Amino acid sequence: MMFNKPAFRWIHLMMEEMGTDIACIKLGGVHIIPISCPMIAREVLKKQDANFASRPLTFASKTFSAGYQNTVLSPNGDQWRKMRRILTSEIICPSRHKWLHDKRAEEAGNLTGYVYNLVSGGDVDVRHVARHYCGNVIRRLVFNRRYFGEPQPDGGPGPLEVEHMDAVFTCLGLLYAFCVSDYLPWLLGLDLDGHEKMVKEANKRVSGLHDEVIDERWRQWKSGERQEPEDFLDVLITLKDTHAKPLLTIEEVKAQSQDMTFAAVDNPSNAVEWALAETVSSPELLQKAVEEMDRVVGRDRLMQESDIPQLNYLKACIREAFRLHPVAAFNLPHIALGDTTIAGYHIPRGSHVILSRIGLGRNPRIWDDPLRFDPDRHVLLSDPKAQVTLTENDLRFISFSTGRRGCIAASLGTAMSMMLFGRLLQGFTWSKPASMAVVDLRESRNGTFMAEPLVLHAEHRLPAHLYSS
Length: 469
Ligand code: HEM
Fold this sequence. Notes:
metal-binding, CATH 1.10.630.10, oxidoreductase
């Protein structure tokens, strides 16, 4: 009976029934350790961070990283250290963040303009808008283009961009999906549940689109046709080692480009879809957010990234979305490199530790009324002007996580999430469509996305000339 549910649901049900914040499930020869208490989570990712700085080897992660050549999915070792160092010192670093500001700003402009066009046609599919905004931003940063194919007159995605985001989200759904052959390796190759075929197909769809751009760009640099770096891809291709030799092979460039694309799209789009659904469902919250926007930015100009520090309530809404509606039930898995003890329990070497995002964020011992969407819980009552940030180093919920395997892109992730949420709130008045009794806030059965894509009614709320500026 229990096993009819997706794995993450029965794991949480079991932990709840046992009244425990740490458990051990044995799958094949592997100990899987789910954790839903911040104190225990901190023991893993703060106190014993070095011992948990690896990732499991799985069919999907190996396929998506071309044999562990990237950062997010690579196990602990020289390749992971090399790729992570490149990202933090050359790509996702403050100087590059500034360098690419105008490309992000242009995408925020495209978002505003595209939704303006959609609003004229009726209700708006917020999930579609959110996912494609994220796709556009990361394509602009990595490949300096928002379209693989022909630009579309309304500013929306064309068939290839739809294909791109569909395939990326399919890959993300297949990653660390408790596939039986990852725990019973002798089943690998038999593909009893079709997982391997789905992984290979989705990966091919993404890499097919990326490879065409990367192969051509590689050629341009090698032939001397290209001289000036304009995007992350150029930076990756032109990095040199201490002997002035190319630091990365083309395979590494491809793996790292795919890595960044995977890392950038699901968190901001999911958080904003939920935050908008929750605030539209509680008009007093929506009103507070819109009032803040009007007070900080006004209606005579569009919100910019430089406004983010002043938009505390909006940031609190996104934090609350990360807490209550994380993109996935579990954080990316961490592997124990050696035997150890956590919360008094023996954890054998090779165990997979998975911090439960829903277990932490909805833990009733940590949060009052945990299932209520209440952004104010993130605003310091004693000092309402204190900066709200999206990071959560104490692991009371997972946003960017922490430690050696923590997210390296809190600035970019914050900018993307906040520009998406902010521009939607500033530019449009959102309400539930007349045909709906209430906004459907159910979570999907197989994951933590909304059960159905959020569709809302929207009206323009700014002077017309701003939408095209
Ligand atoms: C709101 C947006 C984002 C959120 C909430 C987020 C969150 C996370 C989380 C939870 C992890 C796993 C941490 C762990 O294993 O404990 C992670 C890892 C990572 N993220 Fe992000 N991320 C975001 C955006 C991005 C973006 C835009 C990039 C780069 C383009 C990025 C790059 C990475 C990388 C490279 C890692 C893996 C680090 C490693 O394994 O060494 N993330 N992120």
